[in-house]
Specification:
The complex is a heterodimer of chains A (215) and B (718). By secondary structure, chain A is an all-alpha fold. Helices cover 78% and strands 0% of the residues of chain A. Chain A has two domains: 80 residues, no CATH class; 107 residues, Serine Threonine Protein Phosphatase 5, Tetratricopeptide repeat (Alpha Horseshoe), CATH 1.25.40. The longest helix of chain A has 22 residues. Chain A starts with a helix and ends with a helix. About 6% of the residues of chain A have low confidence. Chain B is mostly beta strands. The C terminus of chain B is likely disordered. The chains are: A mainly alpha (215), B mainly beta (718).
Chain lengths: 215, 718
Amino acid sequence: MKNLAIFLITFSLCATSLSAQNEKFQMAMGKALGQMSAAKGPEDLKNTANTFSRIASAEAAEWLPQYYAALTHLWAGYSIMGSNMTEAQALAKTALSEIQAGQKIAPNESELAALEAFAYQLQLLEDPMTKGAEMSGKIFATLGKAESLNPANPRVYYLRGNFTLNMPEFFGGGPAKAAPDVQKAVAAYAVFKPASPLHPNWGATEAGELAEKVK
Amino acid sequence: MKKELLSIVFGLFCLLVHAQSITIKGAVKSNTGESIIGANIVLLGTYDGASSDLDGQFSFSTEEKGKQILQITYIGFDTLSMPLELKGQNLEFNLKLKETVNELNAVTIVAGVFEASDTKKSVILKSVDIALTAGAVADITGAMLTLPGTVRNQESGQLLVRGGAAYETRTLIDGLYVQNAYNSTTGNLPARNRFSPFMFKGMMFSSGGYSAEYGQALSSALILNSSDVATQNTTGIQLLSVGGGLSQQKSWAKSSLSVSGTYSNLSPYFKLIKQNFDWKQAPESGNVELSFKTKTSSTGIFKFYATGLSNGFNMNVAVDGDEKQKMPLKLSGENLYLNTSYRDVVFKDWTLFVGSAYTWNRDKIRQNFQLNTLQQSAQSRFTLTKSLSDAVKLKFGAEHIWSVFDENYTEGETFKTLHNENYLAAFAETDLKFSEKWLARVGVRAEQSSLLGRGNIAPRLSTAYILGKGEQLAFSFGQFYQTPEHTQMRRSTDVGFEQADHYILTYQKQVEGYIFRVEGYYKNYHNLLKTTAELPQNTGYGYARGIDLFWRDSKSIKNGDYYVSYSFLDTERNYRDFPTQAMPYFAAKHNVAVVYKHWIHELNTMLSTTYAFQSGRPYNDPNSSVFNGSRTPVFQDLSLTLSYITNIKDNFTVVYIAANNVPGFRQVSGYRFSNTPDEQGRFAGSPILPPAKRFIFLGLIMTIGEKFVKNQGNNDDL
């Protein structure tokens, strides 16, 4: 009788491929997120990005794999920026196309807009002298959009604080200008609950470190 | 949680039931044979796949069956999609990926061209480089004079390229000719380019062998492309030691409008700093500009630009070269320039450009004579471009220019010159990509001038070949025709076009942070105008040959960036009133420019310095029997600009000081000789010197922008 029950449940799981597919997605994403947190350098990050891209190619209705593929590409880009700016810029470009693919699925996702600004920031760093004025306007506008989509998204304030801090003082940046956003980020992280264990939940530690810098 | 775990276990069980997995493995290499690390291999539509490892190897298992697509992606390479059928056996592949053609590795025509752009990556200079070049004081021409192939000339300030005279260089804005690119000047006073470098998103300085798209320039074309729709609302305030300016820019969703005005007056400055010139009234100028741009569709853009300028001065100048006899010389000039253009994609994949430009320019000079010159021109032009395939691109177009040259010279009696011109030209050119490494551009241009009653057909050819990564060899050939200058055709317009043939060979190597370039050229002039006979004739000729070197390093020095230009020029010609073949006064054998920029982080200051060296230029000493046989002393200049960047009440502000010829080198650009000999039968001569030994310039530019205010607002609402 018990065996029959197991058989029936197994059968139904296999038959209703939808829920099986969902389990498979959860599992693959969970594994990839594990790979992401264990990543030790740009090569690991790029491999993780590959894993997310593979999931994205199979899951046309999910924005999360695109989001994480872009995020890991950007982290890899920021980490190699000093040694290989050309590749860092190629990674930024790839990340932006992944963000766009995500936005086709979830057009009003605040996390994707925030990540878009993070990608623009990497593009600006290629040549701050030439791109500074135009790109900083774009970054603030995109973060403004992310904020209006979800004012509780702590990454909006973290990214804006981080960008403002690194912006030259003559351009309206610096610790004093960054402080309000950083404080807002710390406060937002304290109460933030991701929608699921798979949803974005990064930046709290970095925001804490930033708070020390702007004191 | 427990329930989830249970499902996962079941799911796994479910998968195991079906598991009959096979292994797909292999290696990924580039088309040049290097292993690719981190390529993404995936069975499309499944989760199955892997990344290639440090040796380019990959391996993964799958239990998929039947027809599938294996996709391999890697950044910077073309995606490879490979159909395959899974029948339960293990598979192994050796895969090759092809590098994507992008701006950095694509083959482009480089012979004769120096490009400055903010949007393209493969360029040699950025717009900001032009603005910050010391000694140029944001003058486009001043910055171009630091590039190889040019000759410095303090007395005219214009672009002299590879043995060519000033009139042999043409300036174009958005494909349309600028009839008077410089402000009006005379009497060895340097002119400035009318246009600010900040107006343009890209500039191309062609020192020869340029495209069939353009004509009417024997030597060189300076091609300026104006910026697109502005995205910010800003107010600009400019305070200069010699004047000031105001600008206002407004932007909407699809359009932008900007209006600006500047005024400069050198008289307070001349009161402070001793001048070599005897000024009666210091140079004074006023300028207004208006620019409107609008996006007409996702691909279309309409631009309108108008500028008006009025300038003048008055100084005591020797009459007929006699230093003892001086008389005030008064100049005033007025100029209006309109430029309007429209560009869009039509009929699916043709790019259409239509544009028109209008110039009205009046110069008045008064001394013991009166000279009034009125020039007008109206141009209309169209071009159509289409990519027929990846390998073939076609471009053709036509233009018409109506122009009038009306000159009245009065000294006792009046001499009038009135030239009416209707110039018509058509061109076609095609880019042929024989391979990813080899590109050729073949073009032809036909011109007809009603003033001369003649036409010409000019072939152009450019080709480039990629030797290795960032390494290119290029060759260019072309025939170039130009209508002789109006001032040389006062007695007759029954003459032909002047002609120059260019042959250019270029080698360029570009790796991140470094550029090296060497260019050799030969230029053959014929049918130049000779004015020694009663009527002008096309019997002049000449040649120019030389080597240009360019080296830029923006990597070795932290926060520093420098480039070095060297040109060797050998040129002689027999034209105009030359009695024999000789080196012209606008040429110098050796030319060196070193431009260094350093960002001093602690001081928020940009230091920019330019050193220039030039061997002596020829001048004709009437006391010598050899025509143009004498040489001026060596020319040297060291210019310095310090720009301090700050913010005043959150408004981006630049304060700068610029000084020319800091060490005070004696800069002789030639000699002036009396028209009549003295008692000993000698012609008295005096050196032509700049108006002052040094020129020091102070300025403040403040931009009151929306962006900073908005950012401020976001922070304030906390």
